[in-house]
Design brief:
The complex is a heterodimer. By secondary structure, chain A is α+β, with helices and mostly antiparallel strands. Chain A has three helices and eight strands; from the N terminus they run E-H-E-E-E-H-E-E-H-E-E. Chain B has one domain: Roll (Ubiquitin-like (UB roll)). The chains are: A alpha+beta, B alpha+beta.
């Protein structure tokens, strides 16, 4: 089971309650929720918010590929995975990403959750523009995309 | 060949639009396109070195949402996305 979505924050928000419903429906015993939020300090600068940009089609494709790879790379066949990432302006404390996973056993769930976020960082074309208290803003440096 | 270069991330600062319209020769490679973008930046953005650095460190993607290498040949008018270094989450 897989759910993926880029959430345009001009229209809606990421809701953890939606992830909970999805995971509950999966009937697996072990679940992990990873939530990323906008933090207030980065590189000693006071952050007021982040604008997220994304290549929507490539991001969704990367989420699907990462999900598909978990069977072979992690040997996790039975799983439910819910991934949503925000696009647009978020203020400090707002949810930028949620990854909810459910498996039969807790060790699988921890491994799966960690694998997904690390692969998203490496492979999903998403960018951040940080906004600061002094009204400056800058695109964060990032890493060259890794072709799978 | 006419290329509609879709801008993402830091490359959005190259223009007030979401894209650049560029012209490259038939069978031009992505390497040639990269040079054409630098040419555009020299002409329209006073050769902004930060922007040029972004171009040099970026990947590119096809209309099929595949990452394409520097040897990829452009044989028709098409949309291509510039993919600057990433960092979501």
């Amino acid at each position: 089971m897989l759910h993926t979505k880029i959430v345009d924050v001009k229209k809606e928000k990421i809701l953890s309650s939606n992830a909970e419903k999805f995971i509950q429906n999966s009937k697996f015993g072990a679940s992990i929720y990873f939530v990323g939020t906008v933090r207030n300090i980065n590189d000693n600068k006071k952050v007021t918010g982040i604008t997220y940009d994304a290549h929507d089609n490539m991001v969704i494709k990367s989420f699907q590929e990462i999900y598909n790879e978990t069977e072979q790379k992690l040997n996790i066949k039975d799983k439910a995975v819910y991934i949503e990432h925000a696009k647009g302006y978020l203020k400090v404390g707002d949810l930028s990403i949620i990854i909810a996973v459910a498996c039969k056993h807790r060790d699988q769930a921890y491994v799966l959750s960690r694998f997904i976020i690390e692969e998203i960082k490496k492979r999903s074309p998403i960018w951040k523009k940080e906004h600061y208290e002094n009204e400056d803003s800058t695109w964060l440096k990032g890493n060259p995309i890794k072709k799978n | 060949m006419k290329i509609k270069l879709e801008l993402f991330g830091a490359s959005r600062d190259f223009s007030t639009k979401d894209f650049l319209e560029l012209e490259v020769q038939d069978k031009a490679s992505i390497k040639d396109l990269r040079n054409e973008i630098v040419h555009y930046l020299n002409k329209n953005c006073k050769g902004n070195q930060s922007f040029i650095k972004i171009v040099k460190s970026s990947a590119f993607c096809s209309e099929n949402n595949e990452i394409i290498t520097d040897n990829y040949k452009i044989i028709k008018d098409q949309k291509i996305g510039i993919i600057p270094p990433i960092g979501g989450g």
